[in-house]
Amino acid sequence: MTAPGRPPGPETRRRSPVAAVAANIALVVYFAFSLLPIAFIIALSLKADRDQTTTYLWFSPTFDNYRTVLGLDGGGSSYVRFFLASLTTSVGAVLVSLVIGIPAAYAAARWRFKGSDNLMFTLLSFRFAPELLVIIPLAVIYRQLGLYDTAVGMIWVLQLVTMPLVVWILRSFFADFPVELEEAALLDGYSRRRVFVKVVLPLVRPGIAAVSLLAFIFAWNNFIFPFTLTSSNAQTVTVSSLAYLGGNLVRFNLVAAGAVMAALPPLVLALFIQRYLVRGLSFGAVKG
Amino acid sequence: MASVEVRGLRKRYGRTTALDDVSFEVADGEFFCLLGPSGAGKTTTLKTLAGLVEPDAGEVVIDGLPSNDVEPTHRGLAMCFESYALYPQLDVYGNLASPLRSPLFRLPASEVDAKVRAVAGTLGIDGLLERPVTRLSNGQRQRVALGRVLVRPARAYLLDEPLAHLDAKIRASMRAELKTISRDLGTTTVYVTHDYVEALSLADRIGVIRDGRILQAGTPEEVWARPVDAFVARAFGKPRMTLVGGGLTDSADGPAFVSDDGALRLPLPPVDAAPGEAVQVGVRPRDLRLRLGADEVPEGWSAVEGRVWVLEHLGRATEVTVAVGAARLAVVAPRAAVAGLTTDDRVSLLIRPSTVHVFATGDEGKRVSP
Q: What is the nearest CA distance from B190 to chain A, expressed in angstroms?
């Protein structure tokens, strides 16, 4: 595995200065291009109402939008509640997916039985169908079961998003894991469960961290399920931001402020486990 | 310690047959070598013994008890994997101590420490105990893997090519060490290797395996002196035994061999085949002698005329390949004796009929000489 930022070795081809400058200019242009939407939304979130439909980045910034969204201006706001609801459902969905998905992925990687591939494919196929396809029957069922607008219901339905991800990615991690390490531990006198906990889990931890983050982002960003299956009680930030678009006054600047804050948790998480993420996504590094 | 036995093991992976009726017995305290080329089923046999591979048919018997249904953890066997299978998250100490910290063999920390240090000392890795195993050379890893086997008492040791990845010099010294260790411990050992020298030097008995079948099991002397078929004969010795195809005839003093092109004629010991039958004969290069000049043919030997085909100088000895008609016979001679020799020189080979191995034709032609 090559760590990012490793100094170029002697094998690196020397480029002419012109080519190097050109490459750097191209990179800067691309960098600006790809960051523009983010810069734009941050700028928008700092604009006063009169500037909100302009596109220029030259204006006098104000934090009023954030105050309004967070209800600090005394106007009252449920943003924090929705934010916490998002956090609860996303974390809950990831945890449930991990608790069920890790053993499932391990079994799928280690135990080939008739139809095991079909089972895995079925799991993956949950991701093929657009969520819209199932949303109406789901809404009906949820109302009848009393799961409508509950955190439990959200966590449950988000399994459609997170579970296939967790199982499929971790299965390939476990499949790459050298069986002989487990066999050695078995002969060392450890039970199968202890082998899993003491030998396998520590070594696939980067993978688990990476897949948890991905699943969290997918769950956090999901819009259609909370949109149709929640109302005021278990609503998430992605849906609640829409409130500022309805009514007689469209407030893009408030939507932007809400979105910027909503983007923080995945960002912070990613920074925290970046070390694992790089290792996890370039797996195959478990060598005896 | 215990005896170990397998009976009629069969294992298929999809369409490939890994084990095809493997049976052998290892007595209590015996050192048994499983020798065969890669893909012969050696590792599968070992893993079946350990309980890591479930056989399609056949039985594993440990200490007289059928053990097919015993979990690997509870078979009381210690195994050294060819891939080392060291725990990458632990250092050398942690790897060596792992068996002694398991629920099954748990010892107090002070005893663990004493045992780990003792084994590390024996294997010459006591200076590496704090080193992560990911930062070891292959030779060091191999020693750690071996140490993890030796550190705890086991009913039998299963060693899968424990010396394969060492360079020649270390391998020879480790082989000697292993011999001492196994003699001192007296633990039943099943040792897998593709190196006949290891097998001959370490084993009490050798099982030659090919394509999932045991071709011959016997003491090193037996498999060397009386190989049951052509494959076993060629599995031992370097240079390898050359086999020459031909037919049996009768002569005044017993059966004789004539090569297909008629160039090689040899008197044979009594054989279990009729005159006219197609056979192949082989002589170990060290059983042949090169006759230079017009020395007299000693009593009990017979001479065969040929030409020098290839000369390979290997230090003190020289390997001379002699062409007799279409047949190529290798012989090892002292370097000084062949100093003046060059390619295409006429030479003759001295052969003793009693050292000629006669086999039926084919890759695994059965032995027909006594």
A: 15
- Residue A17 amino acid letter: P
CB–CB contact B85 A288 (8 Å): yes
> Is residue A1 very low, low, confident or very high in pLDDT (cuts 50, 70, 90)?
very low
Q: Can you give the pLDDT at residue B207?
A: 96
Stretch among A37-51, B104-118, B165-179 having the lowest mean pLDDT: B165-179
The reply to whether residue B85 touches residue A202, judged by beta carbons under 8 angstroms, is: no
Distance CA B359, CA B367 (A): 4
Q: How close A84 gets to chain B, by Cα (Å)?
A: 37
Across the range A194-219, mean pLDDT stands at 90
| Integer Cα distance of B231 and A47 in angstroms | 87
Question: Which of B1-5, B57-61, B327-331 has the largest mean confidence?
Answer: B57-61
pLDDT at A281: 58
Q: Show Cβ contacts of residue B252 under 8 Å, excluding neighbours closer than 6 positions.
A: none
- pLDDT score at A13: 61
Sheet architecture: strand order including B265-267 = B265-267, B254-259, B242-251, B278-283, B357-360
Residues 6+ apart with CB under 8 A from B153: none
Distance CA A121, CA A162 (A): 15
User: What chain B residue is nearest to A188 in terms of C-alpha separation?
Assistant: B99
Distance CA A216, CA B51 (A): 40
The C-alpha of A277 sits at a distance from chain B's nearest C-alpha, in angstroms, of 18
**Cβ B342 vs Cβ B357: under 8 Å:** no
Contact (CB<8Å) A181/B141: no
- Considering A124-128, B87-91, B216-220, B234-238, the range whose residues carry the highest mean pLDDT is B216-220
Distance between alpha carbon A268 and the CA centroid of its chain, in Å? 12
Confidence class for position A5, pLDDT limits 50, 70, 90: very low
Assign 3-state DSSP to chain A and report helix, strand, coil percentages, each to 5: 70, 0, 30
Task: Given the cut 0.95, state whether the ipTM is greater than it.
Answer: no
Residues of A within an 8 Å Cβ radius of B: 178, 180-181, 183-191, 194, 199, 202-203, 286-288
Angle at B103 between CA B101 and CA B105, to 5 degrees: 65
- Distance in angstroms (rounded) separating the CA atoms of residues A14 and A74: 62
Would you call the peptide bond into B239 cis, given omega within 30 degrees of 0 as the criterion?
A: yes
Question: What is the interface size between A and B, counted as CB pairs within 8 Å?
Answer: 68
Q: Which residues of B251-278 are buried (b: 16+ CB within 10 A; e: fewer)?
A: eeeebbbebeeebbbbbbeebebeeeee
